[in-house]
């Protein structure tokens, strides 16, 4: 394999990782609008990075054996999860108490990370069919999504004070819009 083809493959994977990481950035931006501590932001980024390693790995493994039909199912499931998270955040913004139904800790973090990494599963299916380099792909996806998640969460945290009590509703609206975009591609 020539140096040019290795560089070309690396750049292609990097652009794919950026595209997948932008999902995590967008959702992180919305989720960052709720009050999160820096320690929570750190763990959220690590968790999403790990999910962006694990999900495409599973996708690539299955993609070697199955058809592309599962890619659409993963996209629909991710869209539904984002709709649920967004709706929950909007509802929580209108409640007087500080209790949330789903927060980015524990099981809520699992749901959050799963919702933003399902698209990497479907991409992994495609890459598995085409025989991409597994280690390079999953590491690229994981690191880029982790960094973009941190940027989104920190940026959301920073602007959260500008919107006051409406910041959680705005964050939920972002998640809802992103879920709709996954379900109704236009």
From TrEMBL:
Subcellular location: Cell membrane
Record carries keyword Zinc-finger: no
Membrane-spanning ranges: 12-34, 41-66, 72-94, 106-129, 135-156, 163-184
Pfam families for this protein: Mntp (PF02659)
Keywords on record: Cell membrane, Ion transport, Manganese, Membrane, Transmembrane, Transmembrane helix, Transport
Membrane-related topology note: Multi-pass membrane protein
HAMAP family: MntP_pump
Family under the similarity heading: Belongs to the MntP (TC 9.B.29) family.
Role of this protein: Probably functions as a manganese efflux pump.
PANTHER family: MANGANESE EFFLUX PUMP MNTP-RELATED
Protein name: Putative manganese efflux pump MntP
Organism: Litchfieldia luteola
Gene name of the encoded protein: mntP
